[in-house]
Amino acid sequence: MQQTMKLKIKPYIQPFERELAFREVKALTGSYPESQSTAKICNTDYCVDTTLSRSALADRLAYWESIQDSRGVQITLQSLRESTVNVVRNGIALDSLREQLPFSTEIPLPNRRCLRYGTHGIHEYRGKFFPQLVRALINISGTRPGGVVADPMSGSGTTVVEAVLAGCRGRGLDMNPLSTLLGNTKTNLLRADAEALAASYTQLRDELLAVEPRVAKKLEHLSSLPEEDQRYLKSWFSDDVLAGLDDISQAIFRLEDKYARALARIALSNIIRSVSWQKSEDLRIRKEVRLDIEIDPKKEFLEEIGRSVRAVLAFLYQNGSLDDLDFEIADGDARRCAEVWGENSVDVIITSPPYATALPYLDTDRLSLCYLGLLPRPEHRTRDQAMIGNREVTERTRKEHWARYLAEKNFLPSSVIALIDQIHSLNSATEVGFRRRNLPALLSKYFFDMKEVIVGMKTSLKPGCSAFVVVGNNHTIAGGHRVDIQTANLLQDVASDVGFEVGEPLSMEMLVSRDIFKKNAMGSEEILVFRKPPR
């Protein structure tokens, strides 16, 4: 039976998020919500006629705070999950956490955007998705529980985490081993036993706080790594720090609970940069030997694991453990996604590809990759060069990329060809550095790679289903002139060329996170919509 529901939108969200909020209501109910206020801006009260129950809407919506029907008001599941962040601030005791959750009466609803609830905040990651964005796009796509939500460049795993929280099956691929570890850990923690996790954390904390005699001892973890990795790590950490990291690693190894071990490894990875001689504000690996300050890895780690475990426990106490999770995040190449997932198998793709030559991808994670034993040091360059968007290239490889472009450029859209040729022409007329000289060849490689990814996405999607691609634009200086690289428009042209129906993109304000990557972030992003034609 149809009834009128009153909906309260989150008052602090951005304009593009309000648009997504309206679209997700339309997708679920068949109608756009109508305003209940004469205010033209910042209105929070809406209504919609629907046959869905109050709880059905409250369980699905991403950008709405509460749903009201004739029987009362219900806080949305998303808002309850976000509210757990307000409970864990200031190092709350674990016993108090148990007492306060799940919420019974008073709920500390967020008064600002909350992106780090639950497992979403356990490790810094450049270019991290907004979880609510993924949840809203799942709704907008019409994907129901049990459907397949995929991300061929899954990064920190946000799409897969939100997929399983929505009752869907999650699929992800990434070529960075730290990314796949992070994504798998974040998703697996949703089924962890909260009490076992709390007990393991207490064991780990107590062991690391115990006073130890200062005697020389073998560094067991470091010694287990390949010799070249050992030498590399010794050049980036002081002896005392390596000893402290080894104590942490051995204590983690002794934990019996696999979920606690995984979370602790992620916490260890997240402090690697701060306790090393790597410049903390630099995406590059540049050394800054600091002999004038004391670096205490155990203190850093205990602060990190304490914060992380409280965020995860709060989520588990509120949400409960999810036993029946269907997901897979594999070490794989986005260009081969159709081979991994199969033809006509995916209900929606939600992804954010790398920007063209924008970031030194593996460089940022190099110390973690070595110390955690995820990728031996000699393999870093090969893996990095295979990744889409990589900007490191030898002269020989540059020439190979350029030769391919000259031979095959007609397989790219005319807009892409015009951009690459313009940059090449401008740079050829002046003396430029190696990065600008390399750019035309690297851009050609990027768009050839992205064409393969987009073809794979189209093959993987079921007929009539969509891919949502979040991408940013950037610019370069060529021959003394600024040249805008409108990646969003160019990828739309690629998608159209391979047979996608290209929908109207949605511009989104780039909200720069307050982390080490903020000064390297892009100025604007867009949500692109590619729909596979129905049969």
UniProtKB/TrEMBL annotation:
<feature type="domain" description="Ribosomal RNA large subunit methyltransferase K/L-like methyltransferase">
    <location>
        <begin position="130"/>
        <end position="168"/>
    </location>
</feature>
<dbReference type="GO" id="GO:0015667">
    <property type="term" value="F:site-specific DNA-methyltransferase (cytosine-N4-specific) activity"/>
</dbReference>
<dbReference type="GO" id="GO:0009307">
    <property type="term" value="P:DNA restriction-modification system"/>
</dbReference>
<protein>
    <recommendedName>
        <fullName>site-specific DNA-methyltransferase (cytosine-N(4)-specific)</fullName>
        <ecNumber>2.1.1.113</ecNumber>
    </recommendedName>
</protein>
<dbReference type="InterPro" id="IPR017985">
    <property type="entry name" value="MeTrfase_CN4_CS"/>
</dbReference>
<dbReference type="GO" id="GO:0003677">
    <property type="term" value="F:DNA binding"/>
</dbReference>
<keyword id="KW-0808">Transferase</keyword>
<dbReference type="Pfam" id="PF01170">
    <property type="entry name" value="UPF0020"/>
</dbReference>
<keyword id="KW-0489">Methyltransferase</keyword>
<dbReference type="GO" id="GO:0032259">
    <property type="term" value="P:methylation"/>
</dbReference>
<keyword id="KW-0949">S-adenosyl-L-methionine</keyword>
<dbReference type="InterPro" id="IPR000241">
    <property type="entry name" value="RlmKL-like_Mtase"/>
</dbReference>
<comment type="similarity">
    <text>Belongs to the N(4)/N(6)-methyltransferase family. N(4) subfamily.</text>
</comment>
<dbReference type="InterPro" id="IPR029063">
    <property type="entry name" value="SAM-dependent_MTases_sf"/>
</dbReference>
<keyword id="KW-0680">Restriction system</keyword>
